[in-house]
Specification:
heterodimer, A: mainly beta, seven-stranded mixed sheet, four-stranded antiparallel sheet, about 0% helix, B: mainly beta
């Protein structure tokens, strides 16, 4: 059974770097049928797509975050990660890692989500 | 960015009655391949979102057949034929045609 688990610091200082890891069990991130991505949800608000990556290295990032974000895969550990630089309070959110079906486009649907982890940006 | 607009914002429903949520996009989501790149998700209280409908009208695995998706171009609808208590949550549409993928603001379905 597929399981995605986010891990990382729950508190990051302003101007610092948010770093999260998603550990995948029950499937291989080297599977060419899927992208691996991140979505976030500020407290009490809606969903915002951050970006996704395939095992071949193809990455798609939200243009509004592109200058600050990096998604990478570690196939040896079956993990993928998110790094977001120069964070501010506006980056406070629940961060979800997810698996996205490759559909010939940018991916649809997001067919499996982690439970999410709250990251707060505060001094 | 493609802007996704959902209505209503809140939807009180009576169990056993039908419900309908509208989603409109600022640009057509109909690809040249004939597929509408529009998905529907539900986020039940305290849970992660889960997919209900993908590529316009395809029900995801395990989703009850009381859920259906329809529409094309810029206008889409999620219908629940008979609402059950377990259907409470926030429903989101999402376009997957163009980067960045964008979500609607959500429709909160609650039991009357």
């Amino acid at each position: 059974q597929l399981h995605l688990q986010e891990s990382g610091p729950g508190l990051v200082k302003p101007s610092g770097t948010l770093s999260l890891t998603c550990t995948v069990s029950g499937a291989s991130i080297g599977d060419s049928n899927y992208y691996w991505g991140w979505i976030r949800q500020p407290p009490g608000k809606g969903l915002k797509w951050i970006g996704s990556m395939s095992y071949t290295g193809t990455t798609y990032y939200s243009p509004s975050l592109k200058s600050r974000v990096t998604i990478s895969l570690d196939t040896s550990k079956n993990q993928f990660s998110l790094k977001l630089n120069s964070v501010t309070a506006a980056d406070t959110a629940v961060y979800y890692c997810a698996r996205v079906v490759v559909d010939g486009g940018y991916g649809s649907p997001i067919n499996h989500w982690g439970r999410g982890t709250l990251v707060t940006v505060s001094s | 960015d493609i802007v996704m607009t959902q209505s209503p914002l809140s939807l009180p429903v009576t169990p056993g009655e039908p419900a309908s949520i509208s989603c409109r996009s600022s640009q057509s989501l109909l690809h040249g391949n004939g597929i509408n790149y529009l998905d529907w998700y539900v986020q039940k209280p305290g849970q992660s979102p889960q997919v209900l409908i993908y590529l316009g009208s395809n029900r995801a695995s395990g989703v009850p057949d009381r859920f259906s998706g329809s529409g094309s171009g810029t206008d889409f609808t999620l219908k629940i034929t008979r609402v059950e208590a377990e259907d409470v949550g926030v429903y989101y549409c999402m376009q997957a045609l163009q980067i960045p993928l964008t979500f609607g603001g959500g429709t909160k379905v609650e039991i009357k």
